[in-house]
Amino acid sequence: MDPIKPPDPSDMTGVPWLGRGRRLQLEEPAVGRSRGLLLSTEGPSVGRARGFLALGDTPQGRGVSLPINEPIVGFARGLLVQPDDGRLGQARGLLFPAAEPKVGVARGAILPSLEPPHGQAPPCETMARDLTEETPTLTTKEVDVSAHGGTTLLSMFRGIGRVADGDMGEVKQQGVPVGGVSSPQSTGQPEEGMGRGSSFPGRGLSPHMMVGLGRAAMPQLGIGRGRPLLSSFPPCLVESVSPTSEAQAPLHSQASSTGTVPPVPTFKEALELSPVAPVKVELKMEPVCEPLNKTGTKGAPITIGSNHVPIHCKNIAVYQYHVTFIPNVESMAMRFGMMKDHRSTTGEVVAFDGSILYLPVKMNNVVDLKSLRRTDNEEIQIKIQMTKVLPPNSDLCIPFYNVVLRRAMKIIGLKLVGRNHYDPESAVILGKQRLQVWPGYSTSIKRTDGGLYLCVDVSHKVLRNDSVLDVMNVLYHQTKENFQDECTKELIGSIVITRYNNRTYRIDAIEWNKSPKDTFILIDGTKTTFVDYYSNHYMSSHVAIARTMGLQSKTQTNLYSCIGQRRGPSKEERQDLSSQVITGEILLVPELSFMTGIPEKMRKDFRAMKDLSIHISVSSEQHTHSIKQLLKNLNTNPESLNELNRWGLEIRSEILLVKARSLPLETICLQSSSFVTNADLSWSREVVRDTSISSITLNIWAIFYPRRCAEQAEELVSTFNKVAGPIGVKIERPICVELRDDRTETYVKSIHSQLTSEPKMQLVVCIIVGNRDDLYSAIKKLCCVKSPIPSQAINIRTISQPQKLRSIAQKILLQMNSKLGGELWTVSVPLKHLMVIGVDVHHDTSKAHQSVMGFVASMNSSLTRWYSRVTFQRPTEELINGFRVCLLAALQKYYEVNHNLPEKIVVYRDGVSDGQLKMVEQYEIPQLIKCFETFPSYEPKLVFIVVQKNISTTLYSWTSNNFGTAPAGTVLDHTLTQRDWVDFYLMAHHVRQGCGLPTRYISLYNSANLTPDHLQRLTFKMCHLYWNWPGTIRVPAPCKYAHKLAFLSGQYLHSEPAIQLSDKLFFL
């Protein structure tokens, strides 16, 4: 029979079917489900399947065996044989005694006949291994055995039935004589079984017999993959398959030449042949996957340092256990307490989250404990069962490693504020600015391709000496009439710290009707005033302040913060709160709450910010010195060492040094010249000396300014005419509109009137006095939404210094040229028919929980023409919905410009955290690929790269045993990269002050098969194309453009810009 050609249906009349085929004849007995080719036979067949246990037999498993006196259904793996001889299977497991019939699910083998007919040559084996390997595992949750009566319990058995190679019908067993059974543990009744698997002629059996390797589930449920059995079953076989027989049927066997049937051994007789000792299942340690190949080769090799410190794990493994409480205990505090009572069993070193227990030492696979619930004195059974053996650097161990690290940081005297640790004792006092700077650290333990590392970043907390009450008093003297409105505007959303417990809160509202004399209810139900509460609980330096609160004016108010916004409740607080649910607000007293952050007034003071930056913006040398000091404190403190050693953690004392690469410098292309960038990757001089790629002639444009700014406006226009020539911009005399005042309504009415009278206006320039967001927002709404036209807003302070006016005018003119559609510079990109897309998300502050997605796509091969769109996303909407609309619009625009569609699309997606990577990979990317079906026969190559800026990794240069700032173009694609992704770190920008902060890029999808070198070089090139800065930036230019667009739309426009501006960079 041809194994590939399907059997002829005409030869199958009246033939029972074995297998789940595409055609079923359920009116005939069905035996088994199988994969593979079943051969026709004229005699009885031998199959190995899961069969049913006989009544009255006692299965013996590798475990506990119990006698069965009720009707029992055994679900086993074994060999189906003819009913002439008794056959035995082996399995392991446990059957439970009960007054009702049971179902025993087992794996075992029923052995073939010991005396097959002589004179038959064994045919060759035709088992289809390739098919069986593809057979999915079948997990049975519930077995319907209505034909055998009701069943209540399910017992799982697993065993292996062995059939040795036979010669001339002789079956050889391992370790037992002929006629015996090796390791019998359960018996199957194969008359009532359905097998699944591959079929092959048995060795040492008659050629008219067939061995079916499979699994049995239920009688007459022959649903399986495979071809039907081309054989006629004798009546005896048909009877034996019938599930309706309640009597104990004989086991299948071969029909002897004389026609006699040998006696069937009972299960008890089989058990006496070869007793087997129980076998214990050992859990193996989870394998550690090898990192992906993500390293490139282009560039010069360099040695760099990073703010990562290697961690050595002394433990061999970490053991994970599942803890079950019977009856169930809902309270987490009770669960923790009960587990704490059994520290003598689990040990002192534990990590327990309420259901999962991690231990550095191994216990038994199953541990049964008992505890007494104190609330009702009910006895609780605790079952601890081992589920996994983890390597010590497993991702599952990282969370409690960080808890251990937090304890060690507390031991060495650091205070936890938010998520970081600070040292108040080393605070720097800035008396003039009334500020305090607390030095501290942001630490985390993480696993990378290089192993387990401690990542340490130097952090600073800026605190103000002004309490909230001080700020309120200043506002009261400034604006008595609108005092409450001004307070609300100034304080809502601010972060404050309470010095008595070093906790931070966000102000959500102000309770004007409460004072420190008012009472509130404690967690135990008692009432107390705010004054008494602070006097009783914080008796140190705050007691005098707390007592004086009673003497304050009755107009004194309380702040409150929503409990959902409170930052970082401690473990002790969570345990104190136990299972109680706290609703309402957290009330804070203004006198004890101190402002954090840099005041807005100070941000505008250049000298004050310069003094502050000296303490905050530390150099690479200072950064590494602070890290080494922390490592020294951790490794010299006996208590912190002991805390880390409990979990076998050993933090090294040296900062990580690795090999990296410095990418080749790029060539900047202008209209008629090109040049290679210098070491600091800046070309501010070149772009104002040579002509841009393309320039827009500025014929009709208007400039609006208040009367007091007339002189500066005239000087600016004059400077424009002087610097426009070298850049290649032709500029005509503007329409000068002098405003009588600088009110918002005056600007808006004047601009609208001018646009109405001059419909061919190309550009609007507005000179603004001061940082006025309301005026800026009104101008942008008018020029971007209502009357679409490119606009430029200039602060009068920017153009008030004559010595800097020329350079400032050059930059403004370049920006104006970009907004009008001009092209400044580009780099050489070898990929042709390429579209590069940048996506970023901004959260709209005016509308709660609303996000704005900015989308920017290139429209030509030189990457100098851009198309932009904006979509607003509500909480119930998926981001991909707007993403899809923008992509389709960009492809249509690309076709209009180029008369063809791009062959390769590279997407740089910003605003994705590590926890969202899987969602983007599994949902967002497939939806984007589906968009291509809109265009007939269009299948472009897609590359999807996630951009992450807010990371804690810092890179240093390492020369002459000293740390410095890593050079621009440094790329690191190993050791610190993540094991599950193709990612790399790139520091594309030049750092003039502080440390080098790279950007992480993660390639989630790459159907273009771009190599790591291609991805890194392309990304580095994209960082050169941001026209607002003549140099490289941290992220690719499309991402920066998308960020600017989303920020403008979400912060000021609060709506989508006009579609007429979509082909211009109006948002720069």
Uncertain runs with pLDDT below 50, 5 residues or more? 1-7, 9-262, 264-278, 540-556, 559-583
Q: Helix proportion of residues, in percent?
A: 10-25%
Extended strand count = 46
What is the first-to-last residue Cα distance?
75 Å
- Computed structural class: alpha+beta
Structural Rg? 39 Å
Which descriptor suits the 3D outline? Answer: globular
Which percent band covers the strand fraction?
Answer: 15-25%
Total helical segments: 24
Oligomer: single chain
Calculate the mean pLDDT score and round it.
74
Biggest sheet strand line-up:
39-38-37-40-41-46-45-44-29-8-42-43
The biggest beta sheet is recorded as: 12 strands, mixed
Walk me through what this model shows.
With 1068 residues, this protein is an alpha+beta fold. The strands form ten sheets. A twelve-stranded mixed β-sheet has the order 39-38-37-40-41-46-45-44-29-8-42-43, with helices on both faces. The longest helix is centred in the C-terminal third of the chain and has 20 residues, at 879-898. The chain starts with 46 loop residues before the first strand and ends in a 15-residue tail after the last helix.
